[in-house]
Amino acid sequence: MLRVPTRRRNRVDIADSGALSDLAFLLIIFFIVIAVFNINSGFLLGLPRKNSVTTVQTDDLMRVAIDADDAIQLDGRPVDRRELTEAVRARRQVQPNMTLMVTIDPQASYQSLVSLVELTRMLDVDNFSFRMGEP
Amino acid sequence: MSDIAFLLLIFIMLISLMNYRQEEPIDYPEASLTEVTQADNNLEIWVRRDGTIVIDGDVVSERGAEGIIADAIAEDPSVRIHLLADRNTEYRTVASIISILQTLQHRVLSLVVSDGTQEGTP
């Protein structure tokens, strides 16, 4: 009787194979990337109570208005963003407790609000309020 | 074995993408000095350029948004509300959402912006 030599395969344990570790590595990378994509960043605003009233000294008040074209007015005078930044910085050095009160036209862009919030964070203006103006 | 691993990987990626948040095509407002505003429990309110409000992929009215926000706050008072609005949307829509939060006595709002490092995403 003729015997043909056969080669037996060695069974490989799944846990010992490289494929499983490769898969785990890829999954980890995938979930890390997904987690990073889902993280929101921006500004946290503390909202006051509705119709709440805060008493502020008029001397500490700095009035800013943004019209429908996103043009800025400081105490009734047209200014650009750089001039506003300098004016707020100078005022804050004199009056650290100053309050920045912003009136925003309903048709103004959302970016104008974000830019003002950014300005308050940049200059550490603690007292900051904004409301919608008359259309 | 590698074939099974590959198929498993595709399967898990597809399942994850199903749970992925519903992105709206908006131009994010840009700002620097941002901070991470993500919390454990989050509710995202999207506002398109034309003022349409979208929550969880569904277009809702202001009244509908108020109901969804109220439910989310009732379920978890510490839920973080994120506002993801187009930079060119009118302020009136943003003001209406802020007014809803004030009515519901929710004190914190996250304005999601792009820091400019990655165009189109926060």
Structural write-up:
The complex is a heterodimer of chains A (135) and B (122). Chain A has 135 residues and is an alpha/beta fold. Chain A has a domain at 60-132: Nucleotidyltransferase, domain 5. Helices cover 35% and strands 22% of the residues of chain A. Chain A has a five-stranded mixed β-sheet. Chain B is of the alpha/beta class. Helices cover 36% and strands 20% of the residues of chain B. Chain B contains three helices and six strands. In chain B, helix 2 crosses helix 3. Chain B starts with a helix and ends in a 10-residue tail after the last strand. Classes of the chains: A alpha/beta (135), B alpha/beta (122). Chains A and B meet through helix 1, strand 1 and helix 3 of A and helix 1, strand 1, strand 2, strand 5 and helix 3 of B. Strand 1 (41-46) of chain A pairs antiparallel with strand 6 (108-112) of chain B.
Architecture blueprint of SSEs:
The complex is a heterodimer of chains A (135) and B (122).
Chain A: H1 18-37, E1 41-46, E2 61-66, E3 72-74, E4 77-79, H2 81-94, E5 99-104, H3 110-122, E6 127-132
Parallel strand pairs in A: 2-5, 5-6
Antiparallel strand pairs in A: 2-3, 3-4
Chain B: H1 2-18, E1 35-36, E2 42-47, E3 53-55, E4 58-60, H2 62-75, E5 80-85, H3 91-103, E6 108-112
Parallel strand pairs in B: 2-5, 5-6
Antiparallel strand pairs in B: 2-3, 3-4
Helix pairs in contact in B: 2-3
What is the CATH architecture term of chain B?
2-Layer Sandwich
Order of helices and strands of chain B: HEEEEHEHE
Total DSSP E strands of chain B: 6
* Pair of chains with the largest interface and how many residues each contributes: A-B, 43 and 53 residues
> What is the highest CATH level, the class of chain B?
Alpha Beta
Helical residue percent of chain B? Answer: 25-40%
Tell me the structural class of chain A. Answer: alpha/beta
The proportion of residues in beta strands of chain B is 15-25%
Distance between the termini of chain B: 39 Å
**Low-confidence parts of chain B:** none
Number of domains of chain B: 1
Radius of gyration of chain B, taken over Cα atoms and rounded to an integer in Å: 17 Å
The largest sheet of chain A is: 5 strands, mixed
